[in-house]
């Protein structure tokens, strides 16, 4: 069910669009707002799947301003701008305009504008697996890289996206040639589609890698909306998109998690992990992720139990553990240093088999849904 928020100040147009939406299947009207500010507030708090906003809102705040502000506040929301033939508007995802509905369009035009909603529900598209942890150094990048390689080895088409714009580490774990392009080299908005392939590097076993910028100061050159844009495009032509994420719940991270169809939370049995994870899960609940997409725990270095247990962790965090990866300092650090993912170089090692089991668990999880 798509939750659609309508922001329209002309009562007759609002009524017309509302009744069109009511006739759409799988659409639920989350609200109708006649005022730009009230619309933005509702979008911020409820994060609907789609916002339909009139480009010609009367008053100080235009429909375009509304689109930009909602994009920044809720990057997972698809934004459809409503206009009339005399005032043509082009889709510009980087400005918050994902699609345009021209009045008096019919049901088909409306349905296609409402489209393959963002927020991970890319119809016909691949699974977006975000690898997240509320603590640094738990093994996100290691697991993201090796999970991508295993899924690819099993025959799926896989993209690996380094979602850590500053000091992204995927490039250090793989034999990436120095001049390889990254997301910072791609044009923003709709133009990204045509050039994305030029920035993709074919990594070990045939995974398609999209890197984060090579230099820390370039991080700010990549707008949050471009992360979602890239992820959506990768999901359009891969079975899986694995996204490595920063530990901080920054705007970037939230945009990635919004776009994800599955969130893997990497934990260890060490120290403050449970407390941090509890807080992160509270945030995810507030964002409405629970019930919307699977939140799954992966215990890394699972043999270092520090007196805790898998069951205890599941109970404390009220989420299932989908994978347990044992520690293997020698193999993991050597293969990271040699830029040769251990699942490919040492497929039989327990740590490699554990990542393979995780991949299988994710595939069967997906089938069940
Ligand atoms: N299963 C494991 N066994 C032994 N060492 C591991 C294991 N997983 C990860 N490591 C080691 O832990 C360190 C951190 O791993 P990694 O860089 O993947 O974590 P991260 O969560 O991505 O960190 P950051 O928050 O800095 O991005 C690395 O030195 C890596 O070799
Ligand atoms: Mg990392």
Main attributes of the structure:
single chain; 369 residues; alpha/beta; Rossmann fold; 8-stranded mixed beta sheet; 5-stranded parallel beta sheet; 14 helices; 40% helix; globular; binds adenosine-5'-triphosphate; binds magnesium ion
What does this structure look like?
With 369 residues, the protein is α/β, with parallel strands linked by helices. Helices cover 40% and strands 18% of the residues. The strands form two sheets. Strands 8-9-7-10-6-11-12-13 form an eight-stranded mixed beta sheet, with helices on both faces. The chain has a five-stranded parallel beta sheet with strand order 2-1-3-4-5, sandwiched between helices. It is globular. It folds into two domains: 2-114, 3-Layer(aba) Sandwich (Rossmann fold), CATH 3.40.50; 127-368, 3-Layer(aba) Sandwich (Rossmann fold). α5 (140-153) crosses α14 (350-368). α1 (11-23) links the parallel β1 and β2 (27-33). It is built from 14 helices and 13 strands. It has helices at 11-23, 36-46, 63-73, 107-114, 140-153, 170-173, 192-199, 224-236, 251-259, 273-286, 310-317, 329-338, 342-345, 350-368; strands at 2-7, 27-33, 50-54, 78-83, 99-102, 127-132, 158-162, 201-202, 208-210, 240-244, 262-267, 295-300, 321-325. Mean pLDDT is 92; it is low at 116-124. The protein binds adenosine-5'-triphosphate and magnesium ion (MG). Adenosine-5'-triphosphate (ATP) binds at residues 133, 136-142, 169, 247, 300-301, 325, 327-329, 332-333, 336, 351.
CATH class of the largest domain: Alpha Beta
Portion in helices:
25-40%
**Structural classification:** alpha/beta
Measure the end-to-end span. 15 Å
Strand content: 15-25%
- Main β-sheet: number of strands, strand sense, barrel status? 8 strands, mixed
Structure ligands: adenosine-5'-triphosphate, magnesium ion
């Amino acid at each position: 069910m798509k939750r659609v928020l309508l922001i329209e100040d002309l009562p007759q147009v609002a009524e017309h669009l509302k009744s069109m939406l009511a006739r759409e299947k799988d659409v639920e009207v989350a609200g109708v707002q006649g005022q730009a500010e009230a619309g933005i507030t509702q979008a911020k708090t409820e994060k609907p799947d789609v916002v339909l906003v009139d480009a010609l809102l009367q008053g100080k705040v235009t429909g375009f301003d509304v689109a930009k502000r909602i994009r920044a506040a809720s990057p997972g929301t698809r934004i459809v701008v409503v206009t009339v033939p005399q005032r043509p508007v082009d889709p510009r995802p980087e400005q918050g305009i994902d699609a345009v509905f021209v009045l008096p369009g019919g049901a088909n035009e409306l349905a296609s504008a409402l489209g393959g909603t963002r927020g991970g529900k890319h119809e016909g598209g691949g699974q977006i697996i975000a690898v997240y942890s509320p603590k640094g150094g738990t093994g996100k990048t290691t697991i993201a890289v090796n999970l991508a390689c295993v899924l690819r080895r099993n025959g799926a088409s896989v993209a690996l996206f380094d979602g850590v714009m500053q000091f992204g580490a995927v490039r250090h774990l793989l034999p990436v040639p120095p001049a390889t392009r990254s997301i910072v080299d791609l044009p923003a908005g709709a133009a990204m589609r045509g050039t994305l392939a030029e920035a993709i590097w074919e990594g070990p076993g045939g995974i398609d890698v999209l890197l984060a910028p090579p230099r820390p100061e370039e991080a700010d050159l990549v707008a949050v909306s471009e992360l979602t844009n890239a992820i959506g495009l990768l999901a359009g032509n891969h079975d899986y998109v694995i996204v490595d994420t920063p530990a901080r719940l920054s705007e970037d991270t939230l945009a990635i998690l919004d776009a994800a169809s599955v969130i893997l939370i990497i934990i260890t049995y060490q120290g403050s992990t449970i407390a941090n994870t509890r807080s992160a899960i509270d945030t995810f609940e507030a964002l409405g992720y629970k019930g919307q997409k699977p939140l799954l725990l992966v215990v890394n270095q699972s043999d270092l139990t520090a007196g805790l247990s898998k069951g205890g962790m599941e109970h404390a965090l009220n989420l299932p553990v989908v994978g347990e990866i044992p520690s293997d300092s020698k193999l993991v650090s050597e293969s990271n240093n040699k830029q040769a993912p251990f699942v490919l170089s040492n497929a039989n090692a327990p740590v490699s088999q554990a990542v393979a089991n995780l991949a299988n668990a994710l595939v069967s999880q997906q089938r069940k849904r």
